[in-house]
C-alpha cells in the first residue's frame, strides 16, 4: 500500500512539475539552477547496531527545497529526473556533499562512520560513471571504506549479470555495496547466490506482518541466517515499533534503521550523534 501511495504521489507531482516545465530543456535549466542555488540538500538517517547498541553510520537521503512548492521528498521528483537523465547528476551532487561532510568531520577531529548513498539505475548504462565517481572521492581524500553504495534490487530485474559486474568493480575499489529494498523484487535469492555484496537492506514491506504471521517471520529469519553464513551484513529498514526491533534482535539482524530509532536528521543534529553514539534509550 505504501508503494502504491508513493507511486501515485510521484505521478501527481510529476504532473505538477511537468505542467510547469513544458519543454525538457526547461527542466534541465530549472534543475541546474536548483543545484546552483543550493535547493537540494541531504538529510542523514542514523543506523544502529543491535549488538553493540551504538551508531554504525547513516544513509544520505536527498531533499529538494523548492522555492514555490516547499520541501519535496524524493518520490516527488526522482522519477521525473530519472526520465530526463538528470538523476546521475543529482547522485553525483549528493556524493560530493557526503565527501564534504566526511572531510569536515575529519578536520574537526570527530569520529567518522560510513555513509551510504543511493545510486540510480542509470549507473549501469554509463561507462564513465565509475571513473568520475572514484576521481571525485579521491579528490576529497575520503577513504573508500567510508562510502557505501546502495542499489535497489527491483531496478535490476533483468540486469542481474550486469549489476554483478558493476558491484564487483566497486568492491575492487574497497567501497561497500548494498542491495536496497531487498525482498521487494523477485530476484532476491539470485542476488544472494550470484552477486558479491556486503550488505542487504531488508525492505520495509518484507518485514510487514511479521508480528502476526508465522510464515513471514520464518522467511525473514532464514534470509538473515543465510546472509550471515554468506558473510553479508543485514540491515532492517523502516523499523517503526519496539516489537519489530525486539523481533529483529531475536532473529539476529545486525543493523536497524527506522523512525523508531530516528527520523532522517539535519546535518547538525547528526553531528551530535557522532559525539554521543549510543542508541537512544527506549
Ligand atoms: P530508500 O533508499 O529505501 O530509503 C529509505 C526511505 O524510507 C527514506 O525515504 C526514509 O526517509 C524512509 N524511512 C526511514 N525510516 C522509515 C520508517 O521507519 N518508516 C517509513 N515509513 N519510512 C522510513 P525517502 O527519504 O523519502 O527516500 C525514498 C527513496 O528515494 C529512497 O528509498 C531511495 O530509493 C530514493 N532516494 C533518496 N535519496 C536519493 C538519492 O540521493 N539518489 C537516488 N538515486 N535515490 C535516492
Ligand atoms: Mg537506500
Ligand atoms: Mg530501501
Ligand atoms: Mg529504495
UniProtKB/TrEMBL annotation:
It comes from the Bacteria. This is Bifunctional diguanylate cyclase/phosphodiesterase. Keywords: Membrane, Transmembrane, Transmembrane helix. The keyword Transmembrane helix applies. It comes from Sphaerochaeta associata. Residues 24-278 form the EAL domain. Signal peptide: none annotated. The lineage of its organism: Bacteria, Pseudomonadati, Spirochaetota, Spirochaetia, Spirochaetales.
